[in-house]
Prior knowledge:
Residues 192-196 have low confidence and may be disordered. A hairpin with a 2-residue loop joins strand 8 (165-174) and strand 9 (177-187). The chain is α+β, with helices and mostly antiparallel strands. 28% of the residues lie in helices and 37% in strands. The protein contains 4 helices and 9 strands, in the order βαββαββαβαβββ.
Amino acid sequence: MFGxxxxxxxxxxxxxxxxxxxxxxxxxxxxxxxxxxxxxxxxHLTLKFFGNISESYxxxxxxxxxxxxxxxxxxxxxxKGIGVxxxxxxxxxxxxxxxxxxxxxxxxxxxxxxxxxxxxFKKEERPFKGHITIGRFKDRVNSExxxxxxxxxxxxxxxxxxxxxxxxxxxxxxxxxxxxxxxxRVTLTEKKKNEM
Length: 196
C-alpha cells in the first residue's frame, strides 16, 4: 500500500559549496534580518517541486529522470550573488544565484519538466529561475537594511563545482524543520554518439 509523500527533484551541492554558503548566511545574520535560515545540510538546487504525491509515482519519476540524465553531461556551476523573491519591498525568500552553464541547466530542467508532464505531472507555469534558497523571511523586513545586506554580498562567488547527479527527495516537515530523505539518485551521463 502506497502513502502520500511530499517530494522534489534537486541537485545536491558539494560540501565546500555548502560551507561557503553557510559563511554568507553567518555574515547576513549580522544584519538582524527576520529570516529562518536553511540548515546547510538541507541546502540544494531544486529542479522540480511536486508537493504531495502518491509514493506509487516514484517509478515513473525515476524513468523521467533517467531519460533526461542520459542526454546531459555533468553541469559546471558556481553560486554567485545574493537576492530575494519576489522583491526587496516584500521579500519571502533569500537566495544565492548561479553562474556557469546556466543555459544547459535551463535546457535540462525544461526537458525534465516535459518528461514529467508526459507522466501526468502538471508543468510549472512560472519560468524556472535557477537559485539556491538559503533562508525564508518570517516577518516584515527593513528594506534599507536588506538592500544594504544584498549590496555588501553582491560579489559573493563560490568555487566552480560539477553537478553530476539529480536526486528525488522526500521531505518530512517536522517541528525542528524539514528532513530530506533520498529516494532515487540518477547520474548525468550524456551518451556518446556511437552508443546511440
